[in-house]
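Side project, low priority. Logging it here so it doesn't get lost.
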Amino acid sequence: MIRRISLHPLAIPFSFFLLALSLYSKDSVIVKKLFNQRLLLSGVSAFEITFTTPPVFGLGSIFSKPSNAIQPCRNTDDLKNAGAFFTDAFWTDKVGGGSKKLSTPQKLQLQRQQISEFQRRYGFFNDQAKLITCQSAATGKVVVKKDIERGIVEKGDEIMGCIGVEIDDVFGKRPDRAGKEKQIEFAPLMSNLAVGRTFRRKGLAEDLVTAVETMVRKEWGYNSCYLYVEKRNKGAVKLYKKMGYWPIWENKDATTLLPTDNGRILETTTTLVCMKKNLKLGLLSRFVPF
């Protein structure tokens, strides 16, 4: 006698999902999210645990991410080191025709401005403004960092990427009766995403964005996140759309700085795009707007 066994239609696909998840790198975004949720349920902050990637050898090393630790800046020196990193990663060969190599005066000016901005925006007087860095933990590589203002040289882990987020006014495109841009809402605004040139195309940008989204929703209690990005930065726009951000308005009269080959730093016009993601939708945010 043959007994028929009936299976739920989703049983086999779900089994394959579990198998794939078990074989997936523990540094993956999915596993990080699941692990973060467990930590938060137990009352542990998501940033009290540092995620590090184990070294991978052979063919796997071609596709794997470098060893890293993602955590917020904890003191003024961290902000200064991040400002120095951002100057090299963002302002060198900036999208829009920027110089591929900064002169010493350009670098010093931009570095001072960037450090000052980071201290103003992400200083430790505000609990809902953070600058997060991705550092090369477990690689054993030590880099020398120079503090321009105090002339101090110090050593530390190499910064591979950074990203900032703060609760701020997010403005709409249409001006109000007074001629000023109309406020949309007081919400998380993500900015200053940069990845070092030697660490790009390894998934670090996605990890940094995910870290911000986790903190914004789980620790700060917000269900949406905004960002501004230059329209001509097609790589960044593509990344944000892939991660579920949708454009909501453009400002064609925005301005930005542009280091030139002749040693100058020009103020040029650019089109700024405001994008928004509904964090409650999870993976569905890629297909369903807010």
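Brief comment: The beta strands are 69-72, 129-135, 142-147, 152-157, 159-175, 181-195, 224-230, 246-259, 265-278.
Revisit when time allows.
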